[in-house]
Amino acid sequence: PWAWKARFFETGDIPLALLSLLVEGPKHGYELMKELERRSGGLYKASAGTVYPTLQQLQDEELVISESADGARRVYSLTGAGRERLDRNADRVAAIWERAQDDEWGGWADAMDPRAAEVMRPAFRLMRAALGSVARSNDPDRADRVREILKRARREIQKLGKED
């Protein structure tokens, strides 16, 4: 996905994503960071330098409130105005979390595993060969034939995963 989109969250998505997570109940910043990572399938690893300033902005806009809990941690809760913001942006919020499930982004978290690096080169060589075969051919059925070969390869690899 990194080749066709620079990042998982688009401009303005993180505040809405944080608000949507607070619908589930109060959370402290670290919980929100971990939940953003989990809900994005591991593709987005939130940093304190992003989450805490965003939470402060949401607090300044009176969309969330915070209070101290356990002495040091601040717990953030959604306000009525925050719920209204979410309601006004319900389609956009739904799109944010659907993005993690679609073919473009969903399932790509495994690519971040260091063990996956061992197969990146052969996978990219396969992709390059498939693209080149279609691009340099005048055969109108070539794309379908290449697609079938790739589907068979994917099924074989998926069978390996089921053996584990």
User: What does the average pLDDT come to?
Assistant: 85
Query: Which secondary-structure class do the elements indicate?
Result: mainly alpha
Q: Beta-sheet strand percentage?
A: 5-15%
**Alpha carbon gyration radius:** 21 Å
How many strands appear in the DSSP assignment? 3
Largest sheet: 3 strands, antiparallel
Series of H and E elements: HEHHEEHHHH
Shape designation:
elongated
- In which range does the helix fraction lie? 55-70%
Enumerate the spans where pLDDT stays under 50 for 5 or more consecutive residues: 1-6
Euclidean distance between termini CA atoms: 26 Å
Strand order of the largest sheet: 1-3-2
Helices, by number, come to 7
Question: Helices, strands, pairings?
Answer:
Layout: H1 13-22, E1 27-28, H2 29-39, H3 48-60, E2 64-69, E3 73-78, H4 80-88, H5 90-99, H6 117-135, H7 142-163
Antiparallel strand pairs: 1-3, 2-3
Helix pairs in contact: 1-3, 1-5, 2-3
What do these coordinates show?
The chain has 164 residues and is mostly helical. It contains seven helices and three strands; from the N terminus they run H-E-H-H-E-E-H-H-H-H. The protein has a three-stranded antiparallel sheet with strand order 1-3-2. Strand 2 and strand 3 form a beta hairpin. The longest helix is centred in the C-terminal third of the chain and has 22 residues, at 142-163.
Descriptive labels:
single chain; 164 residues; mainly alpha; three-stranded antiparallel sheet; 57% helix; disordered N terminus
Brief synopsis:
By secondary structure, the chain is mostly helical. The protein has helices spanning 13-22, 29-39, 48-60, 80-88, 90-99, 117-135, 142-163; strands at residues 27-28, 64-69, 73-78.
